[in-house]
Predict the 3D structure of the following.
Amino acid sequence: RRRRPPTPQSPLEKVAAQAELSLPKLAGKWFLVGVASRCSYLAEHSHRLEATAVTVTVPDGQSLATSTFRKLDGMCWEIRQRYLPARARGRFLLKGRAYGSKVDMVVGETDHSSYAILYYQKGRSISVKLYGRTSQVSDTIVEKFEQHVRAVGLSEDMTYYFPIYGFCDSVDEFHILD
């Protein structure tokens, strides 16, 4: 009887989650500062990046609810998502509507008060995002982010920084995606 080869380790399984993570301290408003990804759409449309703000809440003490405000084609939209706790502290799962559309997320590093570095994986594709409590972060924090990016095999030419102006503050009821 032949044995099946072991399933390869997912790239995200190698990423350590923040040791002293406090979900209540993670709650509040964050600004998307940068993202590193192999996404071809992002590479082709990086000149069209829009300022993006996210509000995080912890509705039940263990999951993260996000409300992302961003412009799409000049209109402000709100995208609501709920990340459920996964097997270990600091790891979360966003269940998609379609088969294979789940997203795994790990809080890689944060000081809760000025920055957070999060890892996302959909399928075998991994991305790293840098969030700040303000739309600009220090060079030291950018350097930390770039170290995390290199650690998962992404590079400088796959890293994109977001505008620091032009944020959406609200949307009407017709521009909410759950």
